[in-house]
């Protein structure tokens, strides 16, 4: 039993070592890529980065006003959708259609 526990511990430690090595390789690869990107930026003319003035944390949340015409368009769309739904339901119900007279005149 103890031998099995030791074997499992060794396997676990080996997996950890492999994982750490992979992480180190990835970090070194990332650094190389960053260097390449920096070299590319140096070749291009540098543009001054302006701070984003639109999203300042001190700015109050914007309040949107719903214009009357847009509101009316939304209501009209809802109404027309309801009317179309009712019409489809009516057409699917055969009892609403007139029936042919059965008796002779």
UniProtKB/TrEMBL annotation:
InterPro entries: Vfa1. This is Uncharacterized protein. One of its GO terms (cellular component) is endosome. Residues 1-53, 74-91 have a biased composition (Basic and acidic residues). PANTHER family: VPS4-ASSOCIATED PROTEIN 1. Residues 1-105 are annotated as: Disordered. Transmembrane segments: none annotated. GO terms for biological process: vacuolar transport. Coiled coil: none annotated.
């Amino acid at each position: 039993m103890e031998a099995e526990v030791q074997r499992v511990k060794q396997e676990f430690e080996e997996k950890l070592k492999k994982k750490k090595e992979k992480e180190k390789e990835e970090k070194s690869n990332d650094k190389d890529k960053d260097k390449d990107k920096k070299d590319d930026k140096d070749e291009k003319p540098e543009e001054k980065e302006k701070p984003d003035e639109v999203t300042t944390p001190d700015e109050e949340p914007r309040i949107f006003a719903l214009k009357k015409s847009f509101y009316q368009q939304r209501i009209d769309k809802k109404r027309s959708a309801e009317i179309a739904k009712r019409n489809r339901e009516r057409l699917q119900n055969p009892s609403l259609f007139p029936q042919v007279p059965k008796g002779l005149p």
